[in-house]
Every structure is written in structure tokens, then in C-alpha cells.
Amino acid sequence: MIISPKLISALLVSISQMTGYSIPGEPPRVRPMSHAQLAEEVCGKPCGVLAFTTPTGEVLIDESLMIGRDPAATSILVHELTHYLQVKSQVIPAVLTCDLWSAREREAYDVQYRWLRLQAPNIRVYSFEVRRLDDPILPDCPEIRPLPTGG
């Protein structure tokens, strides 16, 4: 899977317009990988993760997602790029507390679903796309490990 720089740029502009975050001069590194590799890197064991943003802002994403062709899949990248902008917007890296993690997740889900709604020609299509995604209810705050900064 190759995710075009043009798509990433367009998504960053959309996210920036929704959030007010500045877009850094250097684009994010987006690293597609197999689901097994992603799960091992993020969870250390098999798990349901589809994408993840590291503390440095690198986006890891399941290569089986049809980014750019499937709106629901692309919205997962939107969620992660929101985390990228969150990380890059901080002058001094913040200590990741449960409250900060929760606030970042709420914002990333809000942006993801707003972006998905803007892509849908009508509410019926939007509802169909939303049902294809995992439950948007935020899980309990995870144990904060050195790696996790986004979902």
C-alpha cells in the first residue's frame, strides 16, 4: 500500500481547518505494515489495533486498509493524523497523563467522524460508514506505557 503525499497533505489541511493546529513543514512518516507487525509493535501481542501514532508523530497503519479508496478506512488515517498534529503542536512534549490521553482521543474521534460526515453525500451513507468502524465510545484510560500516544 502506498499512501500518496497529496492525500496526506489534503487530509492535514482538513484537520487543521477543524482543529486550528498548524501544519508542520515536514510531513508525517506514515509506515504501512502487516496487521501482525502492527499488533506486535503496539501491543506486544495479537490485538485489534488498525493504526497508531507514536510519541514522535510517526503513523503506523495496517496495510490492508484501503486508504484513499474507502472512506471509513481513510477516516482511520484522519484520526491518526489528528494525533500527529497534536504531538507536533506542542513546543515542549507533554507528559502523557490519562486526562491528556482521553482529551486527545476525544478530539481525534471528533475530527474523524466530522471528516467522514463531510465525505458522505447524505446521512444514510454516513450512517453506513460509521457502522463499519469500531465503537467510538472511548475505552478506559490504558496503562500509560512509553509507546502509546494515540489510537
Write the layout of secondary structure elements.
Elements: H1 5-19, E1 30-33, H2 35-43, E2 51-53, E3 59-62, H3 71-88, H4 98-119, H5 123-132
Parallel strand pairs: 1-3
Antiparallel strand pairs: 2-3
Helix pairs in contact: 1-3, 3-4, 4-5
Offer a concise description of the structure:
The protein is mainly alpha-helical and 151 residues long. The chain has a single domain (5-132), classed as Collagenase (Catalytic Domain), CATH 3.40.390. 49% of the residues lie in helices and 7% in strands.
Give structural notes.
Strand 2 and strand 3 (59-62) form a beta hairpin. The protein has helices at 5-19, 35-43, 71-88, 98-119, 123-132, and strands spanning 30-33, 51-53, 59-62. It is mainly alpha-helical and 151 residues long. The protein has a single domain (5-132), classed as Collagenase (Catalytic Domain) (3-Layer(aba) Sandwich), CATH 3.40.390. The chain starts with a helix and ends in a 19-residue tail after the last helix. It has a three-stranded mixed beta sheet. Helix content is 49%, strand content 7%.
